[in-house]
Amino acid sequence: TDIQGATQTGKPEFTEGDSRVPMNDDVPATFDDGSTTKTVDSVGTYTVAADGTVTFVPEKSFVGTAPAVTVVREDKNGTKASATYTPTVTPVTPTAEDTTSTGKQGQTQTGKPKFTEGDSRVPMNDDVPATFDDGSTTKTVDGVGTYTVAADGTVTFVPEKSFTGTAPAVTVVREDMNGTKASATYTPTVTPVTPTAEDTTSTGKQGQTQTGKPVFTEGNSRVPMNDDVPATFEDGSTTKTVDGV
Question: Residue 175: which H helix or E strand, with range?
């Protein structure tokens, strides 16, 4: 018995019927059909050595008890005996932990779910890139933002500038060296950034032009006021005339 993906060996024990007629070490052991190699689809390959030792190389996806193979040897009289070898493969299952991140409105965030191999002999496969659960590496959610997953499982989230709140979770999938997959979610949260403004007044003589400038302050230093977008009145206009005023 050994773990998923690991090569195993077993050696049936052959005992002579009389000490004066030992087993014949000059005649190699075989399987019961006379072969020395057997392959069972989706299970693995068995190879028997001359001394009767069987080596079993399982398919990486196989778990459970494999079919028995029959090993045959003979003694110095040519009398044959047979015994079986049965390997069992125990599953190796990687695990994964969900992750989250929190950032300001309009700011890019990243998060990386943690993947852990089920056995140190079967590490995560760094040669197979992580994907989302549908096999893609990029997802866009309208009105929310765009998620991109890197080969190592790191997710980058670029929110829409208007989005705040907890975004939908995305599922990241990785696999180990046996091809066994594990999945975990990444959930970003976007906290609002709200600029503030202070009213202003002015005083001047009758008939004289006046000016005033309200004070606008960004809600976060990383989200400054946008000097490329001109100020307007609340109805979107830039000029207002009040009759008699």
Answer: strand 170-175
pLDDT tens-place string over residues 42-66: 999 999 999 999 999 999 999 999 9
CA distance 35 to 29: 9
What tokens does 15 get? 């005992």
Q: What are phi and psi of 2, to 5 degrees?
A: -155, 180
The reported pTM is 0.84
Percent of the chain at pLDDT exceeding 90 = 99
Closest residue by Cα to residue 71 from 126, 25, 11, 111: 11
Distance CA 240, CA 245 (A): 11
Which of 104-143 are b and which e, b meaning 16 or more Cβ less than 10 Å from the residue's Cβ?
bbbbebebbbebebbbeebebbeeeebbbeeeeeebeeee
β-strands 8-10, 2-3 pairing: unpaired
Alpha-carbon distance of 71 to 155, in angstroms, equals: 53
DSSP line for 68-135: PEEEEEEBTT--EEEEEE--EEE----EEE-EEEEEETT--EEE--EEE-SBTTB-B-TTS--EETTS
